[in-house]
Amino acid sequence: MTSIARMILSEHIMSGDPELHPGDEIGIKIDRTLTQDATGTLAYLQFEAMGLERVKTELSVSFIDHNTLQTDFRNPDDHRYLQTVAAKYGIYFSRPGNGICHQVFLERFSKPGRTLIGSDSHTPTAGGVGMIAIGAGGLDVAVAMGGGAYYLKAPEIIGVHLSGKMPEYVSAKDIVLEVLRRLGVKGGVDKILEYFGPGIKELSVPERATITNMGAETGATTSIFPSDEITKEFLIMQQREHDWVEIPEANEKDFEQVIKINLSKLEPLIAKPHSPGNVVPLSELIGLKVDQVAIGSCTNSSLKDMLAVGGLLKGRKIHPNTVLGVSPGSRQVLSYLAKNGQLADIISAGARILESACGPCIGMGFAPPSGGVSLRTFNRNFSGRSGTADAEVYLVSPEVAVAAAIFGEITDPKKLGAALKINLPAKIDIDDSMILPPSDKPESVEVIRGPNIVPLPKMDPLPKSLSSIQVLIKLNDDITTDHIMPAGAKILPLRSNLPEISMHVFEQVDPSFVSIALRAKDRGGGVILAGNNYGQGSSREHAALAPMYLGVKMILAKSFARIHKANLINFGILPCTLDDATLFEKIDASDILDVKGIRKILEAGEPHFFIINKRKGTKIPITCQLTDRERNIVLAGGLLNYTKGGGV
Ligand code: MIC
Ligand code: SF4
Description:
Aconitase, domain 3; binds iron/sulfur cluster; seven-stranded mixed β-barrel; single chain
């Protein structure tokens, strides 16, 4: 017996030691892939650049869920490109309106024991049925669609032992908030969180998926549950019993480390602004006035969640000082609520029904008022992400969200009376008509590119030396990809247009970055200096690609988040760390740095070298910890060049 994660990973090893020594580089075979529109256009442009006729995966799906606003031609152009490219290359296409990628994937495409990578950091949602599901950059997904391995550091497997029974009004969201309270936003980096113990029998698949989804916020590679009778029930409900495979839970001795959570001792929790790791008991904030409540996102928009929301709102009205927005996670969930009456209960309570899409989670409408307090069932509350720079966003369970919407302030949900017992239906109607299968005559499909689809620029190999490169900006710890490359209604339509989107890099942290960026372009280079956990959060490649486009050659940080580090390497940017964190104080924005003979240093496989701070006359020891493969990718000027040059 071994842990489930280890078992699935070693069954899929294509390169590296199947013994999976933590920290070693491994390459795994990917069975299934997913993309969403905001990262998908780049992924498919990159796939097209590989010159293949069809995807080589068992199953690949392209979803439209992030930007569905269609405020002008750019967004629908992206959709049309994605639809035609999917038809041509053998990819299923989930149309706008069909739901959030992770929710729909869980319902219609998940399969225990298989591997999945997705160009979205919440891909681990599918770990709720016992898949190894990992968030990655779009280029990694493109390579996997082409049959190539997905490379990662063999993770350490942490067992999360659940025992006891959740008290009334404690929900799956509180379990994952408890995990975040203990691990923080970087405690999971290069780790897989594997759940086991009698407490897992308390959790349906959608509840498990809430936990694996938000495990991403710990920085973990992924999270996973066993596949048991409860998984089977879920697949029967989805009329997909044939996809069920049993994967029994592991034992305590199969893990390198175990975290124990007694569910009976949990209480409702809340993550305060501006980090999902900023978790405290809800009881500390009772009475705080709430301007806005949003229920939905890939974390908490399942049928189970929405039945609870419908049940609690029935016969009640929302508070006049609070607005409530509800976005059911998929068309399947929305249709069920419509047919069975809960939608009417939600509407009659005064909720605004938003589209089944990411919506407010990524700042696509429903922004809070100035300085407003917004309670959301989502997974991220980074500052500015809601679309309002000074909003205070809190993360909670659906039950706590409903209580706040009714009372207009943070309230103990027990005030709503006895908790409801929600059982999922044994079977539901399945209608996959919004999922278009690929064409069986691919040669006749024309890929349609509107003017907003700008091909990627050619990337140059790493130069011999980095001479007189300027520190463009100096940043603190935990800089998220939302800081580097914001999303939201204004910027998302530019996701397929690198020259334009690059002008918005770091706009949130430093509105003057545009001028610095232009200077960087003129000078032909630049460095970004940052603290710990640089690139936390999303998988968006734009956070690497746009700085690359502006001539950034190196990020010098105290440490990096996993997906972002991989994206930097894929686009030929050197991710380097300071050997001594105190040296951070010795470098300032606008300093001019030199790294002589950087190519030779890397070619010799040397991870340690010096940068010269010309302005201060200091010599600073730094490390660029890369595997041989990663080093060659950076030397080649990115993964596409490397693959074209015959690298695997
Ligand atoms: C997010 O939650 O930040 C996103 C938007 O889903 C991103 C993907 C993106 O930036 O397109 C993610 O999590 O990877
Ligand atoms: Fe969409 Fe939000 Fe989930 Fe990202 S976290 S996939 S934006 S719902």
